[in-house]
Automatic annotation (TrEMBL), chain A:
CDD domains: TM_PBP2. It holds the Pfam family BPD_transp_1. The chain crosses the membrane at residues 23-42, 93-118, 138-164, 216-236, 256-278. Belongs to the binding-protein-dependent transport system permease family. This is ABC transporter permease. Keywords: Cell membrane, Membrane, Peptide transport, Protein transport, Transmembrane, Transmembrane helix, Transport. It is a multi-pass membrane protein. It comes from the Bacteria. Its main location: membrane. InterPro entries: BP-dependent_transpt_permease, MetI-like, MetI-like_sf, OppC_N. It comes from Teichococcus aerophilus. It is found in: Cell membrane.
UniProtKB/TrEMBL annotation, chain B:
Belongs to the binding-protein-dependent transport system permease family. This is ABC transporter permease. Keywords: Cell membrane, Membrane, Transmembrane, Transmembrane helix, Transport. SUPFAM superfamilies: MetI-like. The chain crosses the membrane at residues 101-123, 144-164, 192-214, 252-272, 303-328.
Amino acid sequence: MSSTTAHPRLESWRRGLYRFRQSWVSVLGLLIVSVLLVLAIGGQHLAPYPQHIAGLVDTSARLQAPSTTYWFGTNELGQDVFSLVVAGTRISLLAGMAVVIVGAAFGVFVGAIAGFLGGWVDEVLMRLADLKLTVPGLILAMAVAAALGPGIVNMVFAIALSWWPGYARLVRGEVMAKREETFVLASRAMGAGTNRLLWKHILPNIMSPIIVKMSLDMGFAILTVASLGFIGIGVKPPTPEWGSLLSVARVNMPDYWWTAIFPGLAIFMAVFGFNLLGDGLRDLLDPKARR
Amino acid sequence: MVGYILRRLLLLVPVLLGLSMLVFAIARLLPGDPVALAAGPNATAADVASVAREFGLDQPLVVQYWNYLTGLFRGDWGVSIFTRRPVAEDLAAYLPATLELVLAAMLLAIGLGIPLGLMAAVFRNKWPDFLARTVSLGAISMPRFFLGLVFQLLFAMWLGWLPLSGRFPLTEDPPPQITGMLTVDALLSGQFHAFGVALSYLALPAIAMCLSPLATIMRMMRASTIEVLQQDYVLTERALGLSQKLILFKYVLKNAISATLTVIGLYFGWLLGGTVLVETVFDWPGIGLYATQAVLTQDFMPIIGVTLCIGAIFVTVNLVVDMLYGLLNPKVRYQ
């Protein structure tokens, strides 16, 4: 066993890390996500044909099958599919992250206020969240994104609009539980105001479940971004987004299947990786969910 | 129990009212100009004004909402600016196709998910369990539209086993309309050939759609079965020498299934909203495809109609799920 002098929090982290390493699926998830992050950051330098990402058309190399020159083949414009897929990593990851962060920030804000103030404020905010949960998120996002026009920022906003109620509910419950604890009472007795109590004392204590939910949501956010791209709303070509790459490539099937299969596989791998990692993180940070 | 149902039904009214208000507000806040779009590219200002008058879009927002709301109760869900047909008529035409797809996917998911989850729990930490869990995580991560495309490529284009897209061939006579669900109608009227044809069109989209609810149901079922299997009464039954089959199917299943039921209810609504993608891939003429067209043309009456319709079905299904709890678990009391 470890030394007895270890700081208790450090010790629990070490145990968590041990559990994380024990489950090969979490490690696999971490591996996939690391590769995606590397591709997202250094994509421009890693793609073999960066000029194709910028939109260069090469008609002499149209629709070539996968080979050692073009790993994933080329599309109807003669562009290297591998380069496009690599470039799409950054867009998907950024958009997914933005959706989760914006949705979580708004949800945490609403949930914290509802849980802390209670009464009619709580009632109104939570009924609004309930209402949001009965509206099909994808259709709502479609409507808003189509109205706002194409573009990554508009799409992120449209998706985040239907993303916050989950966080609001989670945070509300946690805040209500923490509100009654002695340390909150103590700081209140020392004269801390609502703002200070909520954001300095209560919120830092409920970060774990929020982070767990964010990591579990990441895969689904990437999936939603790709879905909107596939329908033809959101990011539009020539920006290489996975969903729109797949949608454009549909007409190339069945003869030129590689133009569709590889962007699709990229979406799958990204969602899979983040789901595995999210499961692992939940075990690490949320002892209640462990069995 | 009757009082409880009545109260829940009454509670649906404010929920649906709020829903209609919310969606109406969002649809009207769209910066696009549906009137100009409907009037056509060569319309004069007078044409645009007359179209706006025709659809009542020149009136204040509150009046428009009130007109819409009172219209709902008369069965008038507004007119699609794009197709110029009543939305209620369009919905009635497209909804059965979507319901057929969602019900088929749910049936598959429940029919396979529950036994697979039970199996994974019984063989906990042995290879059937690992296999089922890994495959289910993969299934949850698989985009439905991509899976649909792969199915089309494999089974329709390369192998030629099943039709590529659509709902029923134009060259054949469809079964007489009873429910609007072609497979059900064909069975009801005894047309087994038409049933086979309709089923062959339904198969790929339904399988593409069922995977993620299937995986979730399986995981829920596994977790709750493991919990029930550790209860004292199961140990007692084992000690009494009851057979594994009897314990599992008579005592464990019933207790393990109630948590799974919630997921089933939630997934039903989720699938209704999520048919958009599968319907786009397979050109399935349901409300998802209808909604996509409406969104792309900024035609807001159909958008409100579809959202309200799905919302109403969603809350109703959840009510039914709550009722079913009582049937499965007599300890549940309705107050």
